[in-house]
Amino acid sequence: DTWLSHLGAALLLAIILVVLGGVVSRYAFNSSFSWTEEGGLWLFTWLIFTVLPIATHRSKNIAIPILRDMLPSAGQAAVRFLAAAAVTYTIIRLLTAGWTIAGMTSGTSLTLGLPSWWQYAVIPASACILLLYQLLAALSVAENRRAELAAIGFSVLVWLLLDVFEQTDIQSSSPTVLLGISFVVTLVMGVPVAFCMLFAAFIASDAGDLLPPAAVVHNMVVGSSKFVLLAIPLFIAAAQVMNAGGLTVRLIGLARALVGHLRGGLAQVNVLTSVFFGFDSGSSTADASLLAKMMVPEMKRNGYPAPFCCAVIASSAILPNVIPPSIAMLLFASIANVSVGKLFLAGILPGLLIAMLLMGTVYIIARRKGYGQATAAPSWVAVSGPLMQAVPALMLSVLIIGGIRFGFVTATEAGVVAVVYALGIGLFFYKDLKLPEVWRGLRESSIDAAMVGFLIGVAAPFAWVLISGRVPRQFLDLMLGHVHQQWAILLLLNVIMLIAGAFLDLTAIMLIVVPIALPLMLQLGVDPVHFGIIVVVNLMLGGLTPPYGLLVFIPSAITGTPVQATFRAAMPFLLILLFGLMLITNVPWISMGAVRAFF
User: Fold this and answer.
1) Positions of the chain with pLDDT under 70
2) Contact between 319 and 328 (Cβ < 8 Å)
3) Which of 42, 180, 347, 597 is at 20 to 30 A from 263, Cα to Cα?
4) Whole-angstrom Cα distance, residue 99 to residue 122?
């Protein structure tokens, strides 16, 4: 883990330097390096597969063991056996297919001057390490060691029978049905979502003779090889640097000066801090973890119950992915091929609306239960100090949104601007940032970025099978054949996404739903930018809903608060957020007003 995380940090640093080099060359020398884009994408591929074993080992994959939890102990053991076998079989297929495509790839990259097979060589190496991790994990479980080892042996046997000796041939007249069955069955068994999608893509492609295994892996790499996606690891890194460099502390201080005097003041500070944090970084999990560490102890000392504290933090943590720059919006832009700049502008008013709804809910609850008595409004002198301290942190959002809107930088380049700016402010202005903390942040950021990148990659062959089976077209015909009103279809899609969000990760849902639903939205005349805001807001609410609300789990785990109590305390906030979602869905001006004003 240690060596791989150091290597991941080095690759992330290389991405930062490559993208930064492209910006500097354009403005300092009035020319661009021809190798910047391809070099960054190669590095991202290496980053994903280098750090993937750690992400898998640390259970950063979202898994949903619904079936296993419902069964008696003997049934749970059987399901655990099959889940482990499915993961191991998928890794073996990844190893052999990665080896094949690396061997098949010839020639030299025109811009990098490197052998083209180097881009793919990391995949079989990563799969070998993943298999080693599977073996070590099996050996470390004393009570189930034989079963775990047997699962690995069983998966090897299945691979030999199906793929090496070809003793059994899987055939299906409907690969998309087999894709869906494979995905759902492995999902409810507790297989991590990314491996469910890859397993299903391999099985369906084999059964329908759609793609050879090497082509599945090639699709994975192509799916994650979009220059705009490089912004995701860059903004994740920027959030880590902001936290370590003191920028977030200054934003909290400004929020305290502005709204700390209101009823439920410390809870109001949480919401406003999430707004400020949202304008600087697109990471909801970073916001939730940071505020849980910094705000909950003080709130508890001032009489706020721990479940209420965690509920406020979890609810306001959706804002960094609604207010630009947003990692979720970057993902939607790459899938739907829409303007990142328009999406960022479209998120401003919905984000501020949600913040006002949350602050109003905090006020009502605090007044009913006597949390945080209101005090006199602060003087300008009391506000001006924290404001001056926070101005450098606030300027980051101006640089990001303004730079993208007026064409000075792309979304990816805005990510590297955010990293460099946060580094400069933390090191030389606030002087809170230490170089060891920077490296530690890069190590953690590389793991998060690898998991997101792997999910994006495996969704590409998964979506290819769906498209080859004309699923989007059939979905479009089915919906338009039974429902004709735009509002009814939007309501139905919202319900579907809300249900899916209770069980699946935002990235996985978006990668599955958007390619299917977007043609329907275009047919109905819904602007894809407006649809993107609906999707992002909707899927962020999944972080607040049981059974797998990640934004609820994070503050609960950090503060030691029972998750059930936090879910109960979050219900009023979830209800008001659903009301906000309905407003955003049915009043397009909330999303599109700023876009139409500036574009």
Assistant:
1) 58-67, 142, 167-173, 547-548
2) no
3) 347
4) 9
SS3 content of the chain, % helix, strand, coil (to 5): 80, 0, 20
Residue 61: the pLDDT is 45
pLDDT at residue 4, rounded to an integer: 93
What was the pLDDT predicted at 302? Answer: 86
Sequence length of the chain is 599
- At 536 the pLDDT is 94
- Rounded to the nearest 10°, the torsion over CA 21, 22, 24, 25 is 110
Residues 6+ apart with CB under 8 A from 87: 134, 191, 192, 195, 199
Tokens of 1: 């883990």
The span from the CA of 332 to the CA of 262, in Å, is 37
β-pair partners for 115: 108
One-letter amino acid at 246 equals: G
**Peptide bond just before 547 cis, omega within 30 deg:** yes
- Is residue 546 a contact partner of residue 496, using CB atoms and an 8 Å limit? no
CA distance 562 to 423: 36
**Cα distances (Å, whole numbers) of residue 347 to 322, 407, 529:** 6, 19, 9
What's the farthest any 2 CA atoms get from each other in the chain? 80
